[in-house]
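[Meeting: bench + compute handoff]

Bench side (C.D.) handed over the final construct sequence. Compute side (W.E.) agreed to return the predicted structure before the next meeting so the bench team could plan truncations. Sequence as handed over:
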Amino acid sequence: MKLSQLFGIIDIGSNSVRMVIYEDAGEGIHRVVEESKKTIRLIDKVTREGQLPIQELQDLLDTLIEFQVLCKGYNTAFIRSVATAAIRNAINSEEVVAYLTSMTGLTIEVASEQDEARYGFIGVLNAMAVTDGFLIDIGGGSTEISLFRNRSIVHTVSFPFGAVNTAKRYAPGGASDEASLRDIRVMTEALFECEPWLKKSPGLPMIGLGGTIRTLAKLVQRRSNHSLPIAHNYQMSLTTVHETIEFLAGLPLNQRVKVEGLAVDRADIIVPGLVILQNALLHTQASHSIVSGAGLREGVYYETVMPGKPFVENVLEHSVANLLRNASYLPARHTEQVHQIAMQLFDGLQDVHKLDSSLRACLYAASKLYRIGTSISYYCYPVHTFYLMTNARINGLTHREIVLSSLIASYTGKKKTRKAFLVHQDLLTQADLSAAVALGSLLQLAAALDSSRSQRVQQIKVQSKGAPTFQLVCSAYPQSELTAAKTLSEDFRKVWRFPLVLTVAP
């Protein structure tokens, strides 16, 4: 396997400057080892004539130097810096880039509108199992909207308004009166009308990038006591967006800054940003909005390490592989064996359980990750597994599916599973609890059938006439596997309502 290397990506946005240091192990397998952000409001420094004065760049320069020091401390192999709308649209863009390069030594790429949309699209598609939809990236100084079909961009457009410059023009000082919001709606609607394709694909989801929609998700989750602490892949209706705007707009700025989940440096620009999102949802007649925790920086990462082919083939499989790679030692052959047996059991019992393909995907993730808790401690590792899986971002699964996968992976009995289920009743149903118990029981059996870690069981044949039985095709007599399975027989019978009968093929 390729030796891992560290490198930094700096995103010079119109509102904030962000730096991420990735550890890359090849083929897109990576982890974030450091992240830093500073709010600069670069778009506010642009004059009416469109110039970004050099004397106004000290905060940005200090931040870039600070990020360089941080990257040096991690001994990064290289740094890739990308600037977006504020620098791109400045009439003295070349002068700004030349100055920053001369002062820092960094090579600063100015992303075109198409580049910015592409980076965001790569980041999203490698983090979400979605085929068709709209993509909206509300930045500080611009808003990009793309339409994609069959995971390919069909149309894209960049509008010259974002959360910061819209707030500065229409809602200075955090104003949120009805006249200000009406003016924002009129302005955005007029520009949306210039792009006829925006109205021609109703009913698709709109996936949102950037701080505006991430903040919206945090606010909604806290107000609704959402039980999973993850914003990525969180879904919200137009009604939710409207209600949040009404709530925030009804607060003066000195009260808005106290709202839990709303960063102080975003309190004055959040309402204009949300109105942009609201109007985009209305204009496109999108079915709902989905938050993406991945965007431009992730897109730049994938384009850097997988040039020419930056898209992963299977989002869930790639995400699971990423988690496994970043865990401490896990026996790869055993993990794969448990996964294969679990899938054979699921498929062989399809006529009994009648569960759909989404639950098969949950069992896939659970069977791959069920021992990930040992990276904290072997003792009580199912508890650690549940925590890690519900706090890590498992791309390709909804919030409901993440919790289901975690319940399956950490299953040690119905009583404990029900206790964990009660914490997540906002996401799960009683049917989900039954499915988690049934599949958790299957996963336990799959793990028992490789208790010797020797992969003796080569295949399981499910005999489904009458009460199902299981015939094991083995490379050697599976004594330890049969012994381990026997300890599960009583729980299996209670869950599945037929006895666990295992035979060994001659």
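W.E. noted at the follow-up: The chain has three domains: 5-111, 128-293, 315-504. C.D. will use this when planning the next construct.
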